[in-house]
Amino acid sequence: MFKRAVIIIGMCAVLPLSVQASDGSGCGLGKVILEGKSGTSVNIAASILNNAIFPQTSAMTSGTMGCDTSTVVQNERQERDIFVASNIDNLSVDVAQGKGDYLSSLAHIMKIEDADKSAFFSLTQQNYEALFISSVESVDTLAALDTAMLGSSSLSKYIQ
What we know:
Blueprint: H1 2-18, H2 29-33, H3 40-53, H4 56-62, H5 75-97, H6 101-109, H7 114-126, H8 128-133, H9 138-150
Helix pairs in contact: 1-3, 5-6, 5-9
């Protein structure tokens, strides 16, 4: 009975790891065994294999089992993408007004300096239609934002 409880607790501990990204379970034994398969249950199984059966950290350290040790972590870009996707409606309202907490938060996430924030707010407001009217997808909004910022001499430095 104790053994089952430990297994269940262990599985519950790794389940959140399986939903970290919709594009797969990362790298490790699970990735190797379940390569090419998709779906929530496959990602959960791969995550369990990656983390519980054969620790993923071993594969990450050695660069084996699909783990690439040369990749660069890009959390800032992902944070921006997740923020916009999660807050697109509220962000749309702030951009239309040229100010607001959501727009300020986006500027903070993008590490826009205080001296450039007013230019950022103005640019987003001027490009409201391109950012929100042409599409309701956050990916399209972000692409339009990048394009608009690349056209600005003071804001292009914030596009990675």
